[in-house]
Structure prediction request, 490 residues.
Amino acid sequence: MAATSNNSPALLDIAEVSKSFGSVEVLRSVSLKVAKGEVVAVIGPSGSGKTTLLRCVNFLESYDSGSIRIDSKEVGFRPGPARDSGARQRRSERDLAAMRAETGMVFQSFNLFPHLTAAGNIMLGLTKVRGKSNAEARSIAEHWLGRVGLAHKADSLPAELSGGQQQRVGIARAVAMEPKILLLDEITSALDPELVGEVLAVVRSLAEEGMTMVMVTHEMAFARDASSRIVFMADGGVSAVGPPKEVLAAETTNERLRTFLARFRASHF
Amino acid sequence: MGYTLNFNLIWRHFDKLWGGLLLSLELAVISIAIGIIIGLVLAVWYVSAGRVVRGIIASYVEFIRNVPLILLVYLVFYGLPTVIDLAYSAQTSFVATLAVYSGAYLVEVFRSGLEAVPRGQLDAGKAIGLTPWQRLVHVRLPTMMRITLPALSNTFISLFKDTSVASVISVPELTYGAQWINFNTFRIVEVYLVVTAMYLVTGYALLFALRLVERWYRTAR
Prediction:
């Protein structure tokens, strides 16, 4: 399994990123490197900044300082002109759109486009962003729907699908764009328990194929089994990071982490 | 109470009513079509604009909504030509007035629809790399249409009925036709009964058609 090695540049390089909403500091100098093929699970209590961090990676949220690079390219900003002493500038919307196409995102609440069929949801980005023909996009959409076990639902509208099916379409929509990295934001939190398994199975198969993923999750067992590293966030900062066995070890000396895990075990077993 | 209903005179002049109804529909369709363009453009502009533009658009909406239509019709037909050197027919004048009037109501309908599009869908549009314009065309407007169609139908029906105001500047639409028959035959009860029925039936037919469109839109794929 790939680990961050110092000689190959990280695919995703988050360096000292900070962000505040008003007077609330939601991210405090967060740093994290993710190598190609790695699966990183981000856990932590609600309000710890997990989702905000993920949304900064594809610039759905801006950040105040630090940098986030994918393939060495800064995501949301570009260097400003020298006369402004090179102060960074927000990228143009067109640039941002192009950058975002390189990352895939799957949302807690699915966020499928309600007026488009399952196939239509997948085809929109392929035709409008990737410039593929309708026929080409359709066959890619069908391929991915097959992969997530929904080949027979290609022409169903989101409203006609169960939550688990909608989320699988959401995953297919993201991966069909062939992103360099896939961001999963609590993708099973809105699902009925019996539907969680089918979604996690899809994620697991993507992981096995070497898809680079960062996933915010509350599924501890899944994080333990499917990820190469776990990041524990608390109060907007990275509190612990390491292989699942280490981070989830009951005898951890990290007070915050121990409390979190204890509370978690108490509520889930 | 010796009044006996006699519809014969109404039927004799029915062409006035039938022609009036067609003209009413024509006035409504043209005004609403222009109103939709005004409404869409201003609503899209509003939701992405700064405070100054928002203020200007909101003032337009508030002004129109707080002034009776009949007053606007008088102002544009009798008032405006005395200020600016422009000649136009009563019909043109009314279409322009109703277009501006319906635009104000439609801005509100479209704006609330645009603002009701779930943020998550816009995020999803961003996440797959759509540009702002693509998000507007392929995500925001289609979703807005689904949300606003019921409210839109009601506004359309209301605007269709508003065409009756054109009678005050002698545009020969349905209500004007009714007045003409009344003045010439004095069968006031009969003529207004018939005209009421005509508005009612047309209104229902419009509503039915619009509901079909709504259903088609919800299930189209």
User: Anything to note?
Assistant: DSSP finds nine helices and no strands in chain B. Chain B has one domain: 8-219. The domain at 8-219 of chain B is CATH 1.10.3720.10 (MetI-like fold). Chain B has a mean pLDDT of 92.
